[in-house]
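User:
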Amino acid sequence: MSGEQIADRLQSLRERLSRCGGDQVKIVAVTKGFGPEAVTAAAKAGLIDVGENYAQELLAKARDLSSRPEAAVAPRWHFIGRLQRNKIGRVAGLVHLWHSVDRPELVAEIARRAPGARVLVQVDVAGIGGRGGCPPEETEVLVQGCGAAGLDVAGLMAVGPPGPPEHARRGFRLLAAQADELGLAELSMGMTADMEVAVEEGATIVRVGTALFGPRPR
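Assistant: Predicted structure:
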């Protein structure tokens, strides 16, 4: 995987986003399942916002890149997967933005390990158990709890349901309405399959893996 290959795919991705009005949307390159070379290739293409789902993968890639200064990579790490409280301390010094804060115990632990951290509250707009996110009716209370703990609440995050992209529209619209009501600027929603719907409903951040790196390795 080369920087040139990623650059070509990034150009196609930006064209997709532009067609639906997403010229200003931030792209987080999701390198889950890929090695540190994917982070290097993304950086060479101009993508420094990198999303990771697992603490151990983030740590391994960060260590590898720091041991190879010739790579000249300084990614901004986004933690986008389900958070385990006992893993927060291990990556607290690396994470630029926490996307998946969905319960009070995580708020307390992040505030303890990374005071003032920038976070997004994850909302379960699809109603699918096991995928993370607080119920929509609890969003405001959780946002307030983050603020009370001294965290910087930048916005909200959601994962669309499986199936046709249009199935995600209702949930994304709900998330946008909640962010507007709460005065929050950032909306992290949309991935490779449903990013157009997400952008049409107000996404400011999309989390993209397949469109940049291809199918995830086994």
